[in-house]
Amino acid sequence: MKNRVIDIIQISIGFLLMLAPKVIAPVCHYDASGGEKPMKCFHMGNAVTTIGLALVIILVVNIIIKNDAVKSGIHIGIILLSGCAIYISKWGIGGCMHSHMSCQAKTIPAVLLLGFIMIALSCFYIFKNLDKLKES
Amino acid sequence: MKAKYKNLIIDSWIKYKYARTLTISAMIFSIALCVFIFIFLNYNIKSSAQNIDNKMGADFMIIPKGEKKNNEGILLSGQPSAFYMNGEIEEALQKIEGVESINSQVFVATLASGCCSFPVQAIGLDFEKDFTIKHWLDNDISVNYNEVIAGSNLAIRAGEVLTFFDNQYKVAANLQPTGIGFDNSIFMTKDTALDMIKKANIKLDNSDTLENMISAVLIKKKKDISSDDLYLDIIRVSKDYDVEIVKSKDFVEEFLQSINNMMNFINILFCVIILFIIITLYSLLMIDAKDKKKDFASLGIIGMSFSEIKKLSIKYISRISIISSISGVLLGLLVVNFFNTIMEDKLKFSLTEFGITKQIITAVIIAIIINMAIIFIQVINVNKIRKKGLIELLRVEE
Prior knowledge:
Strand content of chain A: under 5%
Number of helices of chain A: 5
Helix content of chain A: over 70%
Shape of chain A: elongated
Structural class of chain A: mainly alpha
Number of strands of chain A: 0
Structural class of chain B: alpha+beta
Oligomer: heterodimer
Distance between the termini of chain A: 20 Å
Radius of gyration of chain A: 17 Å
Largest sheet of chain A: none
C-alpha cells in the first residue's frame, strides 16, 4: 500500500515534469514563424520534456514489476534522471539571462521543485526497502 | 516490554487503517506548509515594503503627468516602461533654495525580441550628480559611453556584453541587491540612453529636442529645510510644465496601505484554511485514539503501565508528525525560494528581507511547535481514555 502511494505520486510528478516546460510553466515565448532564432530555454524545455516522458515510462514499468531488487534499481534510475532534469534546467543548458523572464521565473523553479520531490521519494523508497534488499 | 515489540506495535498501528494514517500525515504536512508560507509572506512583505523608503534616495520625483503608475512599476519592480518630458524643468528646479542635489534620468524600455538580449528597464543618468545608485556600487566606477551597470537580478557579470536594439553594450559593473526595481534594471550614461532611444526609433512628441528629453527629475532636499516648504516651492516652479510631483514619503505610505489591504485578505484566507485543517486534524486524532481503546486495554491487561501506554502512543503519533511536519516545512522552503521571482512579479516589488538563515530557523521552530501541539492533543486524548476502566474500554469496542 505504502509503495503504491509513492508510485502514484511519482507518476503524477513525472507527468507534471513532462508538461511543465510546454504547458504548466512554459519557457519564454518563441515565434517560429517570424524567423527568429529560439533562445536557449527553448532547447532546455525540449530536453526536460523528454526526460519527463522517459520518467513516466519508467514509472509505469515500475508499477508492473513486482521484484523488489529490480524496483530499487528503477528508483536509482529515477534519481539519476531527475538529477539530469535539474542539471539541464539550471546549469547544463539553462535559461535566459533575466531572472524575471518566464523560463527563469516559472520553468526552472518548477523543474527544480518537481525534480527534488521525485529524488526525495525515490530515496525514501530505497531506504524503506533496504531490509528486503539485504534479505534478497 | 522490549523495545523491539514496542516498535512492532507502533508499526501495526501505522499500518492499521493506512488511509487514516495518510490523512493525518497530509493534514500535518499541510499545516506545516501553510504556516511557513504564511509567516514568510507576512514578515517578508511587511519588512521589504517598510525599507523601500530608505532605499529610494530621493525625496521628490518629478515625472510627466499621468505616468505615476508606470513610475511605480519602474521603482518597485523594474517593469520596463518609458515616458518623456522637456528637460528645461531641471534647470528651473535647480534654482530652488532647499534643493541639495538634483539629477534627471532618461528611461528606455528594451524589447523581448531578436534585437535585444532581454526586456529590461534601461535608465540613463548623470553619474557625477547621482545620489540614488552610487550606494549600491562596490567602489567608484566610471561608466563610459556604451557601457552599462547591471542590476543584481540579471544573470550577467562585469565584462560580458549585452545587445539592445542591435547595438552592443559592455557591462562595467554589477549593482548590489537593493530590494527594489533597481535589481531588474540596467544603468548607463545619459548619452548612451539617448543614443539607445535613437536606435530604438522611439517616436517622441518633438523629435527635434531629443537631446533635451528626460523622463524624471529626482530631488534630494537639504536637511534643514522642511519637506512641505520645498514641496510648495516645487509646485510653484513646475506649474508651467505638464508634470506630476511625487513625494517619496507619500508614495511609500500609499504603497504600504495597499500592501496592508492585500495582506489582510491573505491573512484571513490563511487563517480560515489553517483553522479548518486544525479542526479536521483534531477530530481525526480523537477518532484515532478512540479506535485504539481496545489495544490500550489489552496492553494494560498484559501488564503494561498506563505511562508506558501513553509513551507508546506518543511515539506512534510523533513518528507520523515528525516526518510530515519536516516534509511540510521543507516543501515550504523549496517553494518560497524557487518561486520567489513569481511572487515578486505578482506583488510587483522585491522580497529580500527574509534570508535563508531566518527561513531555516523559522522552519525548525514551526516543525517543533507543530510536533509539540500534536503530542499535546494525543496526551489529552489518551488521558481521557484513562478515566475508564480496562473492562469498560473492552466493552465499548464490543
